């Protein structure tokens, strides 16, 4: 029994190690490149650990005059989109799962259809529409476009999480005299928290790294978002690998830290909540 | 229940407000694309015309400053408001097309030579023959290939702004010495190039690196070698491709044969990877655009290198292929006359010396520019003067892709050069006569 | 079970529907009418050709080639993303030291902007400077210089691996969230009955996450089909067009060749294709839906 337990734990540890290695492998080259001085960047065979660790690439990334600006732009756009999408989608998902009205299934499927179209085929008409709304070069236009693409997914995800929550819970709360709204917010929303968390993470990251819309809609340098801005380190014929990798590491860290907090809040600690419910 | 409804209406209203209020932003901006959001801030001080231009973002900040200075002078001279925004190459390409195809975009378009025919065929830009005849711009002042790249179906559409050439030969003098070669005598012919390359391929280092990754540049090289070997790319009617001639086959064979003196893995590489191998001291010679000097200066500032003309076939000439950018007027521009003034202004001798991203397209300006900014200016200038240019037809990108496939087939050993080029030529001819 | 309330229902879904109408369905209609035109630049001004354009694109052969690659690509990338995502979610659902850290680490591929991730993989696959060949050498398979992105066949494998890496955190996160709602009592009951891990998985875990799992499979498949950046940056569809999939082809047609009509045709064909597949999946889902 003990041996079996140990071996299964060893197997588990090995599996986890393998997974972590798979995830971190490209980051190793990224980190290694970002820390190398110019003369060590390209050697055959490549050095995994730099002989001399240099911070020059990180310095260069932060000296780039608008790098921090890009970061703040991205953060603002992603956070606002995320909040708006969650509001719109929680309501819609509620409508789709708990209410009956003509065309419910139809609209639900129509919503998903929006994900099926290749964006590079509709980018020109989309540009025209955003232009005729006067939203080119404004964050409002960008946020609206992001909402259009993330709301459908958010609704579908939230709906599938909602379906896992038995309606009897709400009903019994309503029997006790709570209004439908109160029942929804008091009973369902807490149970939905992992779903909301995961969905919010999805929306945040999609907007955080979106490239095409940000490129086409925004022109002013000071309004660009990170995925566009980071390409400043790549020219037509020359990629500034060291600086670009340093910049990539630098922008990943805050999001990583954000997730450290969020996952504790939203995923862990919920097991207890769920069983209690 | 009511509260949910109210909340939903609130969300709906919010979306509408978001749409609505941004619409107001635009009101005074007279719809100049790209400048729309700026409109509100500026009072209607006189009837200042606005002109927008998107340019290529370069690592060299001095050029951006020079462009801004030049734009300021232009603003004062014409009482205009010039807005210059710069983008990296790939972004400029996609963004400009989406905007222009969407009926907007900047007034003055900075076009890569190979886009001119397409933009002209799609009627995104206007012919400038009338403007030209009234101006003192002379074709002879500019590099012939660059001027040629600005024409489409016998009409002039785009004035040359700057030029580059694929390519010149860079070689590492120290590595030449180590291999017992005279560092002042770079290879001149194809056979010398391979012979030197074999001597330089030792101890984990290589003679050079060819490439065939997904980019235009490999076709620039093979095209150049085809013309160098006495061939032509397209016949005069523009309806028949000639790359399957003996010259074309020899050119492609030469390029593919470089694999024997290159590190393994050429097909997955692009021109940048090949240059990285050179700047990191893994290869001793590189064929690359003349702007490669900037790359060497940033990546390997201490390298002891020389620049020579591209190797030529026995009995042939050293020929490169033109690259570079031309300036055209957006068909949808509301200020075409002003746009033309700006083009004239940016392509005249005085300004060309400072504001171009590559070598100026104006020959006299180019000479001064090269002397000031480049080592080996004479080598570059001579390579530029006799460079060939890529076929100026509307479906050039498709042609280039078929050529690229032929090159990749030869370099992966799937077909020999003759068969691959024959197959490609058949496909291209069909395309040209569709 | 459900409350019948049309007004409230429409009000709740209203904002989402209006957004989609303006931002997506109008562009779609625009594409549809473009697809009925001949916009080849060498043919002069665009001409109305009706449906015959579709026939010609099909006969052209390239569409078939691209479809084959698209199917392989979508099947492999989506399949492995969900599989690895599920395995990872189950591992991360177990308690172990530093679990909070590992959970956040695993999301890292997803945090990276897509283009940056693709460029990083380009570096990893570099024959001389990449860690991929170096890793293989370190594992004892000898020094070599495999041309990951330049060998037809291998290139497809390379882009699939990179895409799986980039995308699997999404199914992982969703399934991990779904696993939180699996009732713990059932496991305990099963333990008493002496059920093994596999049985517990099939009879308890799978049914309780199946709703989310199906949604995830559906979404991941759709996204993968339209996933563009990875292949565009890594191979551009090459070598010898061996990694060209629908979105890279559409991009080539519109942004390189300016042939918006043909691009729209390909886009519509692939749209109908995904629609059909999704329809089947959705019906499957509805059949087993409880509420």
Automatic annotation (TrEMBL), chain A:
SUPFAM superfamilies: MetI-like
PROSITE patterns, A to Z: ABC_TM1 (PS50928)
Superkingdom of this protein's organism: Bacteria
Membrane topology category: Multi-pass membrane protein
Keywords in alphabetical order: Cell membrane, Membrane, Transmembrane, Transmembrane helix, Transport
Residue stretches spanning the membrane: 75-94, 106-127, 139-162, 241-262
InterPro entries xref list: BP-dep_ABC_trans_perm, MetI-like, MetI-like_sf
Main location: membrane
Subcellular location: Cell membrane
Start and end residues of each ABC transmembrane type-1 domain: 71-262
Membership in a protein family: Belongs to the binding-protein-dependent transport system permease family.
Protein name as catalogued: ABC transmembrane type-1 domain-containing protein
Organism (species): Gordoniibacillus kamchatkensis
Organismal lineage: Bacteria, Bacillati, Bacillota, Bacilli, Bacillales
Automatic annotation (TrEMBL), chain B:
Cleaved signal peptide residues: 1-27
Pfam families membership: SBP_bac_1 (PF01547)
Keyword flag Cytoplasm: no
InterPro entries hit by this protein: SBP
Keyword GTP-binding attributed: no
Alphabetical UniProt keywords: Signal, Transport
Protein family: Belongs to the bacterial solute-binding protein 1 family.
Protein's name in the database: ABC transporter substrate-binding protein
């Amino acid at each position: 029994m003990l041996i079996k337990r140990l071996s299964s734990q060893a197997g588990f540890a090995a599996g986890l190690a393998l997974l972590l290695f798979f995830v971190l492998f490209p980051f190793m080259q990224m980190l290694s490149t970002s820390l190398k001085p110019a003369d060590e960047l390209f050697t055959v065979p490549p050095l995994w650990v730099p002989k001399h660790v240099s911070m020059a690439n990180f310095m260069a990334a932060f000296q780039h005059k608008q790098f921090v600006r890009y970061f703040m732009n991205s953060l603002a756009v992603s956070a606002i989109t995320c909040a708006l999408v969650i509001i719109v989608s929680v309501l819609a998902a509620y409508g789709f799962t708990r209410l009956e009205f003509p065309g419910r299934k139809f609209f639900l499927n129509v919503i998903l259809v929006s994900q099926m179209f290749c964006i590079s085929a509709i980018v020109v008409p989309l540009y025209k529409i955003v232009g005729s709304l006067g939203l080119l070069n404004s964050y409002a236009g960008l946020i609206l476009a992001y909402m259009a693409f993330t709301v459908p997914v958010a609704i579908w995800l939230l709906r599938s999480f909602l379906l896992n929550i038995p309606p009897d819970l709400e009903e019994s709360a309503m029997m006790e005299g709570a209004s439908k709204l109160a029942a929804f917010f008091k009973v369902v929303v807490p149970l939905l928290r992992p779903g909301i968390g995961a969905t919010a993470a999805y929306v945040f990251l999609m907007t955080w790294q979106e490239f095409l819309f940000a490129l086409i809609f925004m022109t002013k340098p000071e309004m660009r978002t990170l995925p566009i801005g980071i390409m400043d380190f790549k020219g037509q014929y020359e990629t500034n690998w060291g600086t670009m990798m340093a910049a990539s590491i630098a922008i990943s860290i805050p999001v990583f830290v954000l997730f450290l907090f969020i996952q504790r809040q939203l995923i862990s600690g919920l097991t207890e909540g769920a069983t209690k419910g | 229940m009511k509260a949910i409804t109210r909340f939903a209406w609130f969300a709906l209203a919010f979306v509408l407000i978001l749409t609505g209020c941004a619409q107001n932003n635009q009101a005074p901006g007279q719809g100049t694309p790209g400048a729309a959001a700026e409109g509100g801030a500026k009072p209607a001080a006189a009837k200042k015309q606005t002109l927008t231009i998107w340019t290529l973002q370069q690592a060299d900040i001095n050029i951006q400053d020079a462009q801004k200075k030049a734009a300021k002078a232009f603003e004062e001279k014409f009482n205009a408001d010039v807005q210059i925004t710069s983008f990296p190459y790939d972004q400029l390409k996609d963004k400009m097309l989406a905007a222009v195809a969407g009926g907007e975009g900047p007034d003055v378009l900075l076009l890569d030579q190979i886009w001119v025919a397409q933009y002209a065929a799609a009627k995104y830009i206007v012919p400038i023959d009338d403007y030209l005849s009234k101006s003192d711009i002379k074709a002879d002042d500019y590099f012939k290939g660059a001027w040629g790249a600005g024409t489409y179906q016998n009409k002039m559409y785009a004035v040359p702004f700057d030029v580059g050439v694929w390519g010149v030969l860079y070689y590492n003098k120290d590595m030449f010495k180590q291999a017992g070669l005279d560092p002042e005598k770079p290879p001149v012919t194809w056979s010398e190039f391979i012979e030197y390359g074999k001597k330089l391929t030792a101890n984990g280092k290589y003679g050079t690196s060819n490439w065939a990754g997904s980019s235009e540049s490999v076709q620039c090289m093979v095209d150049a070698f085809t013309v160098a070997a006495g061939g032509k790319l397209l016949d005069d009617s523009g309806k028949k491709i000639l790359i399957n001639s003996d010259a074309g086959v020899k050119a492609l064979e030469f390029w593919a044969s470089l694999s024997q003196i290159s590190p393994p893995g050429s097909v997955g590489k692009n021109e940048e990877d090949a240059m990285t191998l050179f700047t990191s001291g893994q290869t001793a010679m590189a064929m690359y655009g003349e702007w490669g000097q900037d790359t060497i200066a940033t990546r390997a500032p201490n390298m002891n290198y020389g620049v020579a003309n591209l190797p030529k076939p026995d009995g042939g000439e050293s020929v490169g292929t033109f690259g570079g950018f031309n300036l055209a007027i957006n068909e949808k521009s509301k200020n075409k006359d002003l746009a033309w003034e700006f083009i004239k202004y940016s392509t005249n001798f005085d300004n060309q010396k400072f504001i171009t991203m590559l070598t100026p397209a104006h020959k006299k300006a180019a000479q001064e520019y090269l002397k000031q900014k480049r080592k080996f200016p004479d080598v570059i200038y001579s390579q530029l003067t006799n460079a060939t240019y890529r076929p100026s037809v509307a479906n050039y990108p498709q042609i280039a892709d078929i050529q690229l496939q032929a090159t990749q087939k030869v370099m992966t050993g799937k077909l020999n050069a003759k068969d691959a080029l024959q197959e490609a030529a058949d496909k291209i001819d069909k395309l040209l006569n569709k | 079970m459900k409350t019948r309330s049309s007004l409230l229902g429409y009000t709740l879904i209203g904002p989402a529907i209006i957004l989609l109408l303006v931002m997506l369905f109008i562009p779609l209609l625009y594409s549809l009418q473009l697809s009925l035109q001949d916009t080849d630049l060498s043919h002069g001004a665009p001409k109305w050709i009706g449906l015959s354009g579709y026939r010609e694109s099909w006969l052209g052969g390239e569409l078939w080639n691209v479809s084959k690659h698209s199917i392989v690509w979508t099947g492999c990338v989506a399949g492995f993303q969900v599989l690895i995502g599920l395995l990872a979610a189950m591992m991360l659902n177990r308690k172990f030291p530093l679990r909070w850290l590992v959970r956040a680490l695993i999301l890292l591929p997803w945090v990276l902007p897509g283009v940056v991730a693709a460029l990083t993989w380009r570096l990893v696959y570099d024959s001389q400077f990449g860690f991929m060949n170096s890793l293989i050498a370190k594992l004892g398979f000898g020094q070599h210089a495999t041309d990951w992105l330049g060998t037809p066949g291998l290139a497809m494998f390379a882009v699939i691996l990179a895409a799986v890496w980039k995308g699997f955190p999404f199914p992982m996160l969703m399934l991990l969230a779904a696993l939180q709602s699996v009732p713990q009592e059932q496991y305990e009951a099963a333990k008493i009955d002496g059920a093994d891990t596999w049985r517990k998985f099939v009879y308890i875990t799978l049914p309780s996450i199946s709703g989310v799992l199906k949604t995830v499979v559906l979404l991941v498949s759709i996204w993968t089909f339209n996933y563009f950046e990875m292949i565009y940056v890594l191979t551009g569809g090459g070598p010898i067009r061996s990694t060209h999939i629908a979105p890279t082809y559409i991009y080539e047609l519109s942004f390189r060749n300016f042939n918006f009509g043909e691009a729209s045709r390909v886009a519509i064909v692939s749209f109908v294709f995904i629609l059909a597949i999704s329809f089947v999946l959705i019906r499957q889902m509805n059949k087993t839906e409880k509420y």
